[in-house]
Amino acid sequence: MGGSGSHLPRDLLSEYQELTFLSKQEILLAHRRFSELLPKEERERAFLTRLPRSKMLTLPELRANPFRHRICHVFSTAADGGGGLSFEDFLDMLSVFSDAATPEIKSHYAFRIFDFDDDGTLDKKDLENLVNCLTGEGEESRLSPVEMDQLIQNILEESDIDKDGTINLSEFQHIISRSPDFPSSFKIVL
Fold it and tell me: What is the greatest pairwise CA distance in the chain?
């Protein structure tokens, strides 16, 4: 018998294979890892359960990511905005971060993750949040206001093709297309 006590119905497994960039083995591993985060009495129905963000963030693969809260927010279909993830949300996340996902899919989700205010553009505040995530939250690692303004100005000069003071999805995808290592670095492996 299985170690986690959970079972993924065969018809759902086939459906998940069709709808994601994941193999059968990757889906089964994702199900096992998701189930292990649930209380024992809920594991049998893991595919029907929503995992709180706090539990999801205990996964080492997310815990180390500076964008972990945004990743959970973007992939959560929870109506309450609480960021809990269903098993299908979790599969969607793993699918986008898999090696098999297309660069277009990866860049679309990267844009959504970096769009901190969810307004469909990367403005100066989004770029500041992005830089702060990358440099760390501590005072010693944070850029000075002058350094931050200069960096954001440089980013906009390079990326803002229509010169409206923001970066839209197509501008972002244009920049990403010039970064050949982006698809291989935008991944999570369980």
Answer: 61
Q: What is the DSSP string of 8-20?
A: --HHHHHHHHHHS
Q: Which residue has the tokens 């963000």?
A: 53
**Among residues 101, 112, 114, which one has the least CA distance to residue 189?**
101
**Residue 83 pLDDT:** 63
Q: Which residue has the higher pLDDT, 49 or 149?
A: 149
- Count the alpha carbons within 13 Å of 112 in the hemisphere toward its beta carbon: 14
Q: How far apart are CA 58 and CA 70, in angstroms?
A: 15
The pLDDT value recorded for residue 6 is 54
Give the lowest-confidence range in 5-14, 143-152, 175-184: 5-14
Backbone angles phi, psi at 122, to 5 degrees: -100, 105
Question: How many angstroms separate the Cα of 134 from the Cα of each of 38, 84, 127, 138, 143?
Answer: 31, 24, 11, 11, 11
In angstroms, the CA 144 to CA 150 distance is 10
Q: How far is CA 79 from the centre of its chain?
A: 18
Tell me: pLDDT of 176 over 50: yes
Amino acid in the structure at residue 104 = E
pLDDT value at residue 178: 93
Give the C-alpha separation, 162 to 171, whole Å: 9
